[in-house]
Design a protein that fits this description.
mainly alpha; Leucine-rich Repeat Variant; 4 helices; 79 residues
């Protein structure tokens, strides 16, 4: 993971949150995956990630639902 200062990390998180709504399925999947990585260190992001995982799991897109399952498993492992 990159070593960003707090301002840089805040900007990255804002961009990733916006990309959760991107029209491209793969961009949305990568954004959620990246946001989940931040949530491993920043617990305040966890509700956002969990809500998005739930939405992705309900998606008709196989790519989004598969990524959501992977992220949910990774979050479970981390506690």
């Amino acid at each position: 993971m990159f070593d960003w200062n707090p301002e840089e990390q805040e900007r990255v998180v804002k961009i990733l949150r916006l990309d959760l709504e991107h029209p491209n399925t793969f961009v949305r999947a990568w954004a959620l995956d990246s946001l989940a990585m931040f949530a491993l260190r920043d617990k305040k992001l966890r509700p956002i990630v969990e809500r998005s995982v739930k939405n992705f799991e309900a998606s008709a897109s196989k790519a989004l639902s598969a990524r959501a399952r992977q992220i949910r498993a990774r979050l479970r492992e981390s506690g």
